[in-house]
Amino acid sequence: MTLKGKTAVVTGSNSGIGLGVARELAKAGADVVLNSFTDTAEDHKLAADMSAEFGVTVRYIKADMSKPDECRALIEQAESCDILVNNAGIQFVKGIDEFPTEKWDAIIAINLSSAFHTTAAALPKMRAAGWGRIVNIASAHGLTASPFKSAYVAAKHGVVGLTKVTALETAQEPITCNAICPGYVLTPLVEAQIPDTMEKYNMSREDVIKNVMLERQPSKEFATVEELGGTAVFLCSDAAKQITGTTISVDGGWTAL
Ligand code: NAD
Questions:
Q1: CATH 3.40.50.720 domain span(s) along the chain
Q2: Which family does it belong to (predicted)?
């Protein structure tokens, strides 16, 4: 599988799943645009290191995915956008009656609306190039719900809906749009929570992972960022060209329950 000659824009990709997906796309030969809302020396070093490791062009472009204009500017600045991975996302947990309006607005803007704006800006480029792949990173929470995550669950269900509409609007073109729905993924953010939780419940690392974090994940294993990246690379392959408008769960059986 080679993605040589293709340019992939991955939103929210200076850590976690976005970075893992960007690395797998670069490994498959794609040039990559990394993104987040920061603009630090580390962000640019990440791009330079990835470029040296995989022998592809990697650029870092700052753009705040909570702002419609910056979402669209990211795609314009990227010049080419053959592969768009909408990954940027945040979380906030609270009951609906106490959920702060600004948190609701931020989650809807970053986790859902940004994908609309980047897709709108990317489609003309994909049409001009005669090829395109849109991969939206939704969640098991795009298909199921949990209490206290109203904005996140609403946004992720929205992403799944947007995925279907985008697929229908491009169904007769060489463009596909799908959503990956991860269960619990071992990102640095999640890894960092393990020691505190071990201390809080006086549990072993294994018990915290199996009985606290992975309570709803039947495999009792995290998905990895490399596995998510591999799924994205598959969705960009020729074998996946009739796969559009659907969801692929990478959740250890969560949504089979
Ligand atoms: P993370 O916090 O490691 O990564 C989030 C990324 O989004 C970071 O690069 C961050 O800089 C970026 N980001 C946040 N706000 C932004 C903004 N305003 N503009 C631009 N970039 C912004 O988290 P993660 O676990 O890697 O999550 C990535 C995606 O995967 C999210 O959409 C999340 O909902 C989804 N997801 C994660 C899990 C999991 O278990 N980790 C499970 C299912 C879905």
A1: 7-185+223-256
A2: Belongs to the short-chain dehydrogenases/reductases (SDR) family.
